Amino acid sequence: MSEIWAIILAAGESKRMGFPKMLLPLRGMTIIEQVIGNVINSQVGETVVVLGAERDEIQKVIKNWPVKHCNNEIYKEGMLSSVKCGFRFLPHDFEAALIFPGDQPHVRPEITDRVISAFRLSGKGIVVPVYGNKRGHPLLISSRYREEVMLLDPGEGLRALARNFSDDVLEVETGTTDILKDIDDQEDYLIELK
Question: What pTM was estimated for this model as a whole?
Fold first, then answer.
């Protein structure tokens, strides 16, 4: 049966943070667990976590969560390489994939569900949550764009997909900045702890 999948990107090196941000504690668990918890409490069917830097440590932390994982051996090439790793992992009959950065623990299940509902009701192939005029995550991509994702230029990333197929893009107003907030550096993390 075709399903909607989540691809959680957790392969980065956390250069700006200075240590593995996915493993930092936040509200009783790690940041990556916060993200996974939000995803699995949504209408998403299956979840794959893309690992790279700190792979073994993150795997230990998430081993009891109902998620699959894939290893991005070329994670140093940037986020798009992890997106492509996730898409390669998906079964041939998936319906759509939602892309979740592993450092965005504020994307609540209801935001994800709103994006999925908009996809199902509109028939559009690319659904983007927005706040005001700013696009955020999770970005939903229909399975019909699988090959296009694999051919994207690393220098342009996923933005190029939405630009190249702008007639098939639906923006969904979420009414929250949560879709824009990530934890990049120590200052961001300290704000989270307040």
Answer: 0.95
Half-sphere exposure of 75 (CA within 13 A, CB side): 18
User: Phi and psi dihedrals of 19, rounded to 5?
Assistant: -155, 165
Under 8 Å between Cβ of 58 and 22: yes
**Cα gap 192→26, rounded to integer Å:** 8
Residues forming a β-bridge with 70: 50
Domain that holds residue 160: 4-193
CB 97 within 8 A of CB 83: no
Angle subtended by helix axes 109-122 and 31-40, to nearest 10: 40
The yes-or-no verdict on residue 164 having pLDDT over 90 is: yes
Q: How far apart are CA 25 and CA 22, in angstroms?
A: 9
Does an H or E element contain 191, and which?
Answer: helix 186-193
Q: Could you tell me the CATH number of the domain that includes residue 135?
A: 3.90.550.10
Beta-bridge partner residues of 130: 135, 173
How many domains does the structure of the chain reveal? 1
Count of all residues that appear for the chain in the document:
194
For 86-97, the pLDDT digits (tens) are 999 999 999 999
Nearest to 1 by CA among 35, 33, 46, 36: 46
